[in-house]
Amino acid sequence: MDFNSNFILGCSAIGAGLAVIAGIGPGVGQGIAAGHAAAAVGRNPGAKSDITSTMLLGQAVAETTGLYGLLVAILLLFVRPLMGAAQ
To answer: Which of 13, 21, 66, 82 could join 26 in a cystine, given CB atoms 3.0 to 4.6 angstroms apart?
Structure first.
């Protein structure tokens, strides 16, 4: 392996680490949403099913960002799409 291949592998590892950081945002957002939903259920227990279903739908949408970051990280680490360009 020459310098160019090692450089691309190193940049892929750094990019994978940065892509995994994308999971922080959904985690914080889901925690905030769950906290607000718990407070809303505490104020109005009769609307528990509506609040819970809306919260879960919002959390599912928010989680897609983290999953896309994980997918990019896995592709960069294991598929190595740039190795063909280095050879």
So the answer is: 66
- pTM score: 0.71
Per the CB < 8 A criterion, the answer to whether 33 and 58 are in contact is yes
- What are the backbone angles phi and psi of residue 53, rounded to the nearest 5°? -65, -40
How far is C-alpha 87 from the geometric centre of its chain's CA atoms? Answer: 32
Of 14, 28, 30, 27, the residue nearest 73 (C-alpha):
14
The confidence score (pLDDT) of residue 44 equals: 92
Separation of alpha carbons 42 and 86, rounded Å: 58
Q: Where are the domains of the chain?
A: 3-86
Domain 3-86: give its CATH code.
1.20.20.10
